[in-house]
Amino acid sequence: MSNILISAAALIVAVVIFRFAFPRQFLRLVLLGARRIMGLRTRSVEFDGTRWPYLLGGPESGEVLVLLHGFSGDKDNWLMYARGLRKNYRVIVPDLPGFGDNARDPNADYHMDAQMRWLLAFVDAMGIDRFHLGGNSMGGYIALKFVLAYADRIQSLALLDSAGVLGKTKSELQIATENGESLLTVSSPEEFDRLLKFIVYRPLPLPGFIKQPYCEDLIAHRLFLEAIFWPMAEEMQERPLNDQLHAIVAPTLVIWGRHDRLIDVSCVDVLKAQIPNNHCVVLEETGHVPMLERPMESAAVHVQFLSNCRAATL
Fold this sequence. Notes:
alpha/beta; eight-stranded mixed sheet; 46% helix
């Protein structure tokens, strides 16, 4: 028994040392384990000389659901949310170009129309014809662009605190952006902590081995991220999609956090008034990322919505 205890203690010490000495590698191991627990696998597809990493889960025979993360996010933002959908749907969650494990090419075009065309190339390379599409924040902006350009490819649309639309009330982010201040890029650990509090309603209990690598990445790629953010913000301000929403024919689910400080909840009224076939849900005590703040609740809403869509086509 003493030998077992000694071995267990040695293992714990080794894990602790590895965690603090190699936080980035430890985080990768944790994410790998989390993906497996959630029933998702890491895959990639290559096209036009580009490798797109993505998460894959669910039955091969299931209808395809593609989920798009937001600005400075990655595919793992959807881990807990995707778990609630993979039982009946073929869930595919890519890293968008410039984020996560996808390529960061400073010479590439990251405007929303370019991201939309990349998404088209991605689903074509995957052999996907018609599919359900969902997106959060910037991912929702891309999803809106896609459904407006390729309506025949989309079975349903889900928008979680989506960018691309202007509401009646300006958000804190919108006001700061108009004043030339970027609140979504950071240059110090203190600014990173401020960013986390800005995005969510209640601070997420993130351990240091998770915060440190993400903080370091955001600081290291600050200028790159700003080069993506400012054109997107300017396009959203000067050419919002408000007057095109009436053309969306796909059944559309809108999920929004009541306390979103980045994109104001008044956008829900715009989406509800303009999109013909919509279902809107506002979550209380929730900020900008419902799939992280309330993953089970928001995923359950999405599952029910998809079930209703399927029933309507029978």
